[in-house]
Amino acid sequence: MLALYLRDVRMGIRAGGGALTGVLFFLAVIVTIPFGVGPDLNLLARIGPAILWIGALLASLLGLDRLFQADREDGSLDLLVLNSDRHMLALTVFVKCLAHWTASVLPLVIAAPLLGLLMNMSLLGIGAAALTLLVGTPAIVFIGAAGAAVTVALQRGGLLISVLVLPLVIPVLIFGVTASYGAVNDPDPFTPPFMILCALSMFLAVIGPLAAAVALRSGTD
Amino acid sequence: MRLIAENLSGERGGEAVFTGIGFALEDGQSLVVTGPNGSGKSTLLRVIAGLLPHASGRIMVEGGGEEFSTVAAACHYLGHQNAMKAALTVNENLAFWRDFSGDGKLGIADALEEVGLGGLGHLPFGYLSTGQKRRAAIAKLLISHRPVWLLDEPTSGLDKASDVRFADLMKAHCSAGGIIVAATHLPLGLVGVKTLEMGRVHV
């Protein structure tokens, strides 16, 4: 399992693409917002957490279509499915998700504080946004894996995954942004939405890989 | 151990591709599946491996013990694709499959030596020629132990010398008690094999 994790991380970094395109897309979204909204620093600070979250959400949906498709094209997916007696398929999917998160989504979380500066966010706000992203983005990957498994046989399934997955990740977005706001706006609470965000990630860490495993098993042809 | 198929039928997209296939293979026996294009050779192999559902009949292994209790657990499947990553080196690819599928008799360097790729393990897999890629994929069969080999056109892209070498590897696998099911158009150089002639597609 560790071998699978290392292979996928290595692929994500080495093949060029994965990690960097996500960050560049994230950067492009965040940089264009101030031009569109105008130089109102207070407004930017207020919408900052939401924009960071939306940018990170869209950027992490970007690479999801390659999660299983690359393995399917070169035949690896068949062997991963065949080995499901030794390594439970859902666990294999879980490890692939973790590797995808490490290689493609973690860079977004690391870039988020820098981009937060462009949105004139306070240091506390930036910290809160980065923390909620760190906790919340795995949920996006886990539920995205189910979408990626369903569309694995489609050549241009990327957009379809986003459409399938987006409604399911809306709760993650809502609680992530609410917690980020709670950290800076005084009467709003931080802990309850943050805890719900943690719960969502853990819940989807179980449901997502299981659903993806079922889809992969019935999708071989 | 025994690999048994009884009255197996498979379908693609709701159309029956083959029906009533049955065979039983003991330790050391091999089966060569031949037939024209579209007769269902690849489908049969995927059905045996369990990658496709079978429409009727059954397929099982007997006497595989705890470790090889199902066909999927007992088999190596070498399909049309090589299941190797172009961006990783041959060694990295093989090391991954060894860690994932379990150890075999041979180490990576020895397995590469067996298929005639000794000293090329440091190259990215994408740099190899078609035949070399196929040989690297064949090395994958050697680094993890599975009693049953399911081979789909295993020698496509191989030159004559590699053909002979691969035939020797298959003979060695059989004489060590392994079972081989191979779908092919080309003679594989195996002696004393059972053959299964797949019929035409029923249109």
Notes on the protein architecture:
- The complex is a heterodimer of chains A (221) and B (203).
- With 221 residues, chain A is mainly α.
- Chain A has 9 helices and no strands.
- Chain A has one domain.
- Chain A is elongated, with a radius of gyration of 18 Å.
- In chain B, strands 5-6-7-3-8 form a 5-stranded parallel beta sheet, with helices on both faces. In chain B, strands 2-1-4 form a 3-stranded antiparallel beta sheet, covered by helices on one side.
- Chain B is built from 6 helices and 8 strands.
- Chain B has one domain (2-197): P-loop containing nucleotide triphosphate hydrolases (Rossmann fold).
- Helix content of chain B is 31%, strand content 26%.
- Classes of the chains: A mainly alpha (221), B alpha/beta (203).
- Chains A and B meet through α1 and α5 of A and α3 of B.
Task: Please name the defining characteristics of this protein.
heterodimer, A: 221 residues, mainly alpha, 9 helices, elongated, B: 203 residues, alpha/beta, 26% strand, Cyt_c_biogenesis_CcmB (chain A)
On the 0-100 scale, what is the average pLDDT of chain B?
88
Largest interface: A-B, 25 and 30 residues
Using only CA atoms, what is the Rg of chain A?
18 Å
What do we call the CATH topology of chain B? Rossmann fold
Number of helices, counting only DSSP H or I runs of 4 residues or more of chain B: 6
